[in-house]
Amino acid sequence: MSRVAVLTSGGDAPGMNAAIRAVVKVGAGRGVEVFGVEGGYDGLIESRIRPLTYSVGDRLMPERAVDLALGEGGTLLGSSRSAAFMEAEGRARAAGALADFDGLVVIGGNGSLAGAHALATEHEMRVIGIPASIDNDIGCTSLAIGVDTALNTIVDACSKISDTARAHRRAFVVEVMGRQSGYLAMASAVAAGADAVLFREQGRSAEAIIESVEAVVRESFDSDVGKRRVLIIKAEGVLLSATDLVREVNDRLAGFGGVETRAIVLGHLIRGGSPSYMDRMVGGRLGLMALHALSDGATDEMVAWRPPLEDGIETPDSRVQRFSLGRVAEESAALLDGSSRVMQRRMRMIETVEGVLAL
Ligand code: F6P
């Protein structure tokens, strides 16, 4: 193996740069030239590919910019949600652009990994995926790159919102990203000290949501309870918008002790920022094992972050195991439709704490 390419695709996630850096450094250390594709699959179709290693005598070195990007959010290669790559013709052009390469590393979420699977199965191309998405909705991996930083950002934002909320005895509905997955809302609720959590997978009607929020606000601001702030974390995927929810709740609370409910949408703020230790470490180790997998001759697989000693094809890193991209796609679909054991476990966990959040 002498030339590999790496790309980032879909929603960016903090820690993508750590994964790119690991691929480049490990490649350079093994004498493999590494090239970066600019702008995800769109850039691949357009052959926008540049070297990320350079020669010094008989050695290969990583571009300094790659090294420096370790602590930066976003992705130094740029990303896209490519419509052209969804078509077989786009994928054929992408495969053509990779004719001189021995393999491709794709860093991204479900859509990007599905693209990697299509490329690996339709063309003679060795492709390895690395899971990266703040939504943590990728099958076979307990963690995707970016999740930890996003959760830290949410907790920090909620703590700041709580400061001002307490000063005015207010309730806040804080909307966090996750169009299809409620993971960020569920996982941040306890750490942020939320009084309630709302996410798509609960399957509640708009009326049930409004009633539950009104009840939490009334109970929390009851003079015997004496709370000074109420915090409700809501996932983006809940169809009722944060502003509509707050308007309805305020209408129903009219006259209740001058209490007011406000909405804030954290949105893309959650996707940015310098990656946490965890995301740098996981990104680095997955990047290393992705390169190992390619040099082992593997293709159509994803490197996953797992508890040690579970099933999967072992790698030299006890936390990293490889899974076929076909299985990843199946498990990801099961996470989203609620049939996966992992999702059922997450739901049971949140149901156990839900009753005490508001206390
Ligand atoms: O990366 C996943 C995600 O953050 C979702 O939670 C969110 O709904 C979506 O991306 C937003 O993507 P875009 O920035 O492309 O609108």
Could you characterize the architecture of this molecule?
The chain contains 12 helices and 14 strands. Strands 3-2-1-6-7-12-14-13 form an 8-stranded mixed beta sheet, with helices on both faces. Strands 9-10-8-11 form a 4-stranded parallel beta sheet, with helices on both faces. A two-stranded antiparallel sheet has the order 4-5. The chain is elongated, with a radius of gyration of 22 Å. Helix 1 crosses helix 10, helix 5 runs antiparallel to helix 11 and helix 8 packs across helix 9. It has 2 domains: about 210 residues, Rossmann fold (3-Layer(aba) Sandwich); about 120 residues, 3-Layer(aba) Sandwich (Rossmann fold), CATH 3.40.50.460. It is α/β, with parallel strands linked by helices. The site of 6-O-phosphono-beta-D-fructofuranose has 11 residues, from loops.
Rg for CA atoms: 22 Å
What bound compounds does this protein have? Answer: 6-O-phosphono-beta-D-fructofuranose
Strand order of the largest sheet: 3-2-1-6-7-12-14-13
Examine the coordinates and then state which fold CATH places here, giving the name of the CATH topology of the largest domain: Rossmann fold
* Strand composition percent: 15-25%
Order of helices and strands: EHEHEEEHHEHEHEHEHEHEHEEEHH
Number of helices: 12
| Structural class based on helices, strands and sheet pairing | alpha/beta
| Major sheet details | 8 strands, mixed
Give the overall form: elongated
Give the tally of structural domains.
2
Helix content: 40-55%
Distance between the termini: 59 Å
Low-confidence stretches: none
